Amino acid sequence: MTSRHLVTRFTLLTCTALATWAISAPAAAANIPTGAPRSPLLNGATPFTQKLLLFEEFGLQPLPAATDTGARLPVPSGCAGSPGDSALDDFLKQPLSPAPTEGANDQGQNPWRAKINSCLGLQLATSPIEGRPPGQDFAHQRFEEFYPSAYFQSATAAARTNSGMRDSLQLHHFAIGTEFGPGGLYYNVLAGTSGPQGTANGVKPRLHPRLPVQNPGSLWTFDGTFPPKLLMARYGEPVLFRHYNALPISPTANRGFGINQVTTHLHNGHTPAESDGFAGAYFFPGQFYDYHWPMILSAYGRLNTDASGPKSGAPDGYGGVVNVAGDWQETMSTLWFHDHRIDHTAQNVYKGMAAMMNLYSAVDRGREGFACHYADPANNTNLCFPSGTHNDWGNRDYDVNLSIADKAWDSTGQLYFNQFNTDGFLGDRMTVNWSWQPYLDVRPRRYRFRMLNASVSRYFKIALVTAAGTRVPFYMICNDGNVMEHAVRFPNAQSQELPLQGIAERFDIVVDFKGFAQGTKLYFVNLAEHEDGARPKRLASLSDAMAGKSSDPGVGKFLEFRIAAATGEPDLSMNPADYVEGKWVMVSRPQITPAELAGARHRYFEFGRSSGTDENPWTIKTDGGHGLGADPKMRRVSAVPTQGAVEIWHLRSGDEGTSGGWSHPVHIHFEEGQVLSRDGRAPPLWERWARKDVYDIGRLASTEVQVALRFEDFLGTYMEHCHNTQHEDHAMLLRWDVNKPGSPMLIRAPLPDWGGVAYAASYLLTD
Fold first, then answer.
1. Do 36 and 61 fall into the same domain?
2. What is the pTM of this model?
3. pLDDT band at 22, cuts 50/70/90?
């Protein structure tokens, strides 16, 4: 029996269940980390003694003229490693070559072909340079209309030391802004005089300065380096991402987990299907895949087609706005992208294949104090979230990305993962931006934190407290990366802390550190307590979590804030209290009329464990049919929504009487949805004013969530799945296709191999 066919279990408690979720004493024992001893604190590593690693920008560059310089991904010297460090850096610094093409580039040859033949004993006569499936099925849609004006390239590679290759591509250049320039809080990438100053050169791939450096088989990241990576993009500036696979050719050079075949999903980008990161469209070492991200607002061809709306746009870099067609109410802000290779998403993402993305717009410009119109909220274009003032857009002085995940390591300090676990994998060490229990220096002013749950199976319930355990209030402004209609204050009548945060959910919050004296320490604390990977069993009390009285080592303080001296500069950011319910509106939700809801097509998806009719452990019933696991070749199409139509999708938790209370964070690709109800009741505050792409269902959440969706602008193949990635990798994933009205033509399913991509006929689920 393969790992795919092992039964996986996990349960999620969501925000609507908190009123009935009993707070009780911690369990006597816990199976954490899953299937291994506790991760040792080697060499005297102690909590809150390292500075938080802030994200490193990929850095966009203008797309060069369509020329081929002859530059190719350097060939590694052996079968078990990536290309040499300097050779890889020199290559990635060169202009894009060869030029991007509408269809896959299957004329050029993989420069690693001879090495692949030697390492694997193959006799490949050909191996395309691009791993994108060929022909029209995966050709870039509307490529000339949204021809890329900017690009970045990166190689997923084995762990290595950062050379500072991207220093000049940082929007702040380690020179602009209060905090990233000399003397600023974030000018030194690492703490101490020996740390890199004004450069990422010398940053090593390790989780704490006293813990061992991760070896090339343990950690695979974009560029192969730390800090983790961030894309800064703007609406109206189409982006081409050339993603190279520079992983070891040998499949065994992985320290027991992870696969050297990748595909990249921009979660939850409004992107054409061929650039969505389809689970079956993966590519191999030596190849690249060109992802085309148009950076358009949804309803581009239906609403505001003359691009005249003042809020439908993006910063131009010179104090103005470039207008963009489409619905400004569909504006997105905080995204991430990660590996989505079928059967191996959990392993590859845990191993490091993930990055974040900030998408800037007229309403979320990343520049406070500029055109805010506080006295005239009806005409307020720029919401002026905390960020900074020095750049025209994309300031990060007071806008901080936080990727939160539990990890584990073995007796030698190398990253550990149990791929055969049947419940869901849990680590015992909490990390933020790959830093184990770090601290962050902050000024006494407002900050924006973009918080991503990047775990495999762990859920968080996060409080912000003083060292004495007093809760500190804050406001949620974005849910799943989408700016909300109204800010929601925490504590509130429904929850004292943030709602339970499932895997892949993003919560953006605004915290005001004014009033705290220099030297004061505050903490993010996790209260969601697990006994094993099955589900969070209870909420720990705040006092127990602060005191470390939990059998779950993931409960407690995980990020320390240290109040630094004030700069004397005024805080020009918005006050979220002005945008709570009953006051001003930030971004109203897109309009779906009562008539559209009344005429909407209803689809039903039931996520279960024991209802399956095949050998797969996790299944999805579609429209009352049989429970089925993912087609291993992704040929089966479970739904075909019509472009432009409004549909209502019912997401249900199956096997309620026999599953032990299993729950699932369900992710629907491509479009954001509006939660209409949970078990027939109105959704909680933080969903009522939001657009989402991850929806929690299950016994301790809602048995059924109703979501309204509209599918716009692009066609093709997308996915829906449980984002407990252990469930996803064990077949809780389905495919659905967007088609033109009256034209149910199915995209063929790609069949990638070292020598190229073949196709298999797709078929529509009818039972």
1. no
2. 0.95
3. very low
